Amino acid sequence: MSLISIAKLFGWIVVIGYAVALMNYFVKQINKKYVSKLPKEQKKFKDFYMKIMKFVIKNHKTIGILTSLIIICHFIIIFIKEGISITGLIAVVIMLLVFLLGIFGAYFNKSKERNWVKIHRALAFALVLAIPAHLMFK
Prior knowledge:
The chain is mostly helical and 138 residues long. The chain is built from 4 helices and no strands. It is elongated and about 55 Å long. The mean pLDDT is 93.
């Protein structure tokens, strides 16, 4: 397997990791707006949903860290072998900012004032545009 093939594999692993990490927001919102309001007759579904939600929430940090490490490897290999991609650079910078804000919030800022979360989420959603742009316009 060539180094470029490995880098491309890393890129797709990053896409999957990012999608799983992004689910953290959606499972919470779906629970808040719909699942928590279901009647008691839906207990089996609610319990099933809660297991999924707990798994996603519990693993959000780990997936974010691993995805960030893999994107760095992807970027370095592609940079060495093919040079710079502006869309790739934009995507990696956004992803690393999301990562750094996540680390900041998880380990350094435990206060009630959580403006960092809004920026963390906004940048995570910016990746919804940056990643496809990178895939289309490498």
